[in-house]
Specification:
The protein is α+β, with helices and mostly antiparallel strands. It has helices spanning about 5-10, 15-30, 40-50, 50-60, 70-85, 115-125, 165-170, 175-180, 180-195, 205-235, 245-255, and strands at about 95-100, 110-115, 130-135, 145-155, 160-165.
Length: about 260
Amino acid sequence: MTRKNTSSYQRSNHAQKSREKIQKQSERSGDSKPDNNLSPIDRSVLRSGLSYDSFVRLLIQSALSRLTIWTQADLDRLLLLSERLGLDPLNNEIYATEVTTEAGKKSRVLFVVGVDGWFKIINSHPQFDGMRFVKSSPGEDGLPLYIECTIFRKDRKVATCVREYMYEAHTNQGAWLTHPRRMLRHKAMVQCARACFGLGGLYEPDEAERVCGGVRLDYDKKSKSLEANQRCKFGSANSKPMGSSEIKHWIVQKL
């Protein structure tokens, strides 16, 4: 579904039925606690306190704004992840972005959790018992060689510790040029949270940029290789045939 079809999507019978179900649920329960019998979008609308149309419009302007085209399945996946992690897609704590592998093929949708979203996930976990950062001494460029993140859990005796190195993570572009220490700290925190709380299938913004950049670079290499092969074939097809004397001269040179 493209953003151009938003108006027709909002005017659909599904929207009207969803508003009626949400209204009945609110009147029956007397609070904003969502019912599991409702669809993911109905539960999300109920939690937000907004009208159905307002919620969909704001969602398209925020968490879905980076997609040129999206489906109902993409919307459901985004809202289910938001619900499971306790994140607000309207505030860009989690959002969807796309990666185009090759021209003419369908884009792959990635779900990205912003830095504020990662902080929210960590702090809201019931077993979270504190976090500590350790920075190494600076190298020749004045930047720390590594930053180490340690997360403590109430139900474990041994803490989870992850160390991220500057020379491996630094990309020499974007925020890495202006805020390298902060970027490395965020990188260490995200990797430590993944290992500590078992968070998979999620990307942080820097990783999403690397994935998109890596795919584009790989695609450019394939395109250049294909063009070179085509030029070689074209050149060989249009080259003049050698005469007998030229062939003899070529054989003598090879011998």
